[in-house]
Design brief:
This protein is mainly beta. Helices cover about 10% and strands about 40% of the residues. The strands form three sheets. It has a five-stranded antiparallel sheet with strand order 3-4-11-9-6, with no helix packed on it. A four-stranded antiparallel sheet has the order 8-7-5-10, with no helix packed on it.
């Protein structure tokens, strides 16, 4: 049996690791803890001074919200899939994770441009694993 102090410690470690969820099981107990950050790591935001009418840019690291095999495009779609330089709307499906025939979308948490991909098509993703970076102009 897991006591409440242990649960709080596990939750702290989950947040510090950048992962989104953890699940622990034994013969009698199943404990699942999910971070409420929505897969967005906004701590990398840049607060450049906005001079001459320029707006400061905000960066985001988008992380896996499930386990699975990375698909840069939905299997039913044609094309190359997500790549650096792509423009996404907030909430738009960006990457897909496939596990046991089930496909789960990872949505863009903000509207903006994909600045970097950390995974390739066919890579295995774990909870909280960084998938791609985005930048937006507020």
């Amino acid at each position: 049996m897991v006591n409440p102090a242990d649960i709080l410690q596990i939750a702290r470690q989950l947040r510090q690791s950048g992962m989104q969820a953890i699940e622990l099981r034994d013969a009698e107990t199943r404990l699942r803890i999910v971070a409420r950050n929505g897969g967005l790591d906004a701590a990398t935001g840049t607060a450049a001074s906005a001079s001459d009418g320029e707006a400061a840019a905000m960066d985001a690291i988008v992380r896996a919200n499930a386990l699975g095999v990375v698909r840069l495009r939905h299997p039913s779609q044609a094309g190359a899939g997500l790549m650096a330089g792509a423009r996404l709307q907030a909430g738009e499906s960006a990457i897909f994770l496939e596990s046991r025939g089930v496909i789960k979308a990872v949505d863009a948490p903000i509207g903006g441009e994909v600045t970097q991909l950390f995974v390739a098509d066919g890579d295995r993703a774990d909870y909280g694993m960084p998938l791609f970076a985005m930048r937006t102009q507020p």
